[in-house]
């Protein structure tokens, strides 16, 4: 029954929030299989389950499995919804995060930048999703050793977060903390 599937989905979310990846994986695999059989492989709920399973795999360091699922979800959403649909952009962002976790930084950068540009066009420069993309690009640039670019992007992101989300929003606070750490690191390395 669909209510039961919803309950299982909530249980998986709880397991994920607790870092209980083995339990989350087991139940999300079952959920994905049932949804695919009952709703179809291309149904939005099935794709969400597949995306959640890919996230679980990424956290478990099962990166090949995560990449495979992320690619499948992204391609299906792109075909069904279009390249700039919010769900497609989330799928692209998830795939970029998997590339980043794999150490495939140039591929991650390319996809993070593409998502950011599409979000700017679709939602505008000050939308929370665009701000999340700015943060992802900054993190990727830092991993690529482009600390100057990363700091500039994170500063721009933080300025917008302060204005749009407010100084006490969790995303603003996280960016502020990261910026302080990076600036300290830059000063320590430059000294």
Q: Distance between the terminal alpha carbons, to the nearest Å?
A: 63 Å
In total, the number of strands is 0
SSE arrangement, N to C: HHHHHHHHH
Helix content: over 70%
Q: What value does the average pLDDT take?
A: 93
The 3D shape can be described as globular
**What can be said about the biggest beta sheet?**
none
Unreliable sequence segments:
none
Computed structural class? mainly alpha
Counted by DSSP, the helix tally is: 9
Rg from Cα: 18 Å
Beta-strand residue fraction: under 5%
Question: What features would you describe in this structure?
Answer:
This protein has 191 residues and is mainly α. Helices cover 84% and strands 0% of the residues. The protein has nine helices and no strands. It has helices spanning 2-17, 21-39, 44-59, 63-81, 86-102, 105-123, 128-143, 147-164, 170-190. Helix 1 (2-17) packs antiparallel against helix 2, helix 4 packs antiparallel against helix 5 and helix 7 packs antiparallel against helix 8 (147-164). The protein is globular, with a radius of gyration of 18 Å.
């Amino acid at each position: 029954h669909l209510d039961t599937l919803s309950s299982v989905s909530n249980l998986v979310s709880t397991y994920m929030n607790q870092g209980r990846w083995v339990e989350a994986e087991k139940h999300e695999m079952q959920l994905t299989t049932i949804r695919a059989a009952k709703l179809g492989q291309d149904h939005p709920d099935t794709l969400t389950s597949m995306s959640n399973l890919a996230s679980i795999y990424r956290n478990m360091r099962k990166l090949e499995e995560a990449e495979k699922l992320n690619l499948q979800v992204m391609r299906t959403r792109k075909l069904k919804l279009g390249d700039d649909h919010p769900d497609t952009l989330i799928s692209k962002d998830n795939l970029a995060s998997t590339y980043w976790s794999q150490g495939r930084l140039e591929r991650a950068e390319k996809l993070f930048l593409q998502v950011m540009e599409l979000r700017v066009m679709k939602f505008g420069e000050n939308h929370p999703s665009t701000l999340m993309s700015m943060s992802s690009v900054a993190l990727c640039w830092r991993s690529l050793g482009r600390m100057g670019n990363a700091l500039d992007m994170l500063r721009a992101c933080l300025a917008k977060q302060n204005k749009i989300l407010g100084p006490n929003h969790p995303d603003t606070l996280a960016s502020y903390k990261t910026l302080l750490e990076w600036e300290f690191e830059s000063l320590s390395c430059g000294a």
